[in-house]
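thread: overnight batch results

M.L. [08:02]
morning all. the overnight job finished for the chain we discussed friday. pasting input first so we're all looking at the same thing
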Amino acid sequence: MSTEESNDYPGIMFSILRRGSRDPIGPLGESDLLQLLNNGEIGLDDMVYYEGIGEWRPIHEVFEVHEQISHFVDDGQDTQRVAIAFREVSSVVGQGEDIYYIAVQAKAGLLSMTKLCVIVTDRHLYLMTEKRSGFELEAHPWRVITNTLMRDEGKGLATFSILLGLERRIDIAHIPMKQVHRLFQLSQEMKTGVAP
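M.L. [08:03]
and the structure it wrote out:
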């Protein structure tokens, strides 16, 4: 199933049949299923069924996107935010553009309750914010980013900054230090043209 198809499950309830088990578990929402996958309580070879699929099928056939998402949560990211960011960016990336990393703010800013995500691809750095009308993506091609910076805020958090030309700087505060280090490392590789 394509990434675009696997993004269309709001409101659908799933049943899961673990290998070696006779009794399915469920009904589960998509976020519950993703949580079970990321916790290792079910595997990609376990079977999934939902109304309209016709037959039990391996989870990995139905949810390719979830296998990809699990690679982005190694540094303590909020799994649900990563899944949303992955879905939003996957719908706009160009042909052959690869998503390398997704960082998530640990806490929202003082004036906003929404968390911001920073998504690194081989062609762009995306900033995703939640608006009342949905999600907003701001795309910055690597060729217009003149520099990236990181600043320790203390308590395991840091600010990641991008410089656009000489006139604009965007600061993304309250990101866990481990994620900021990875963002900075990847941004340096992208600026020098050495993709991971």
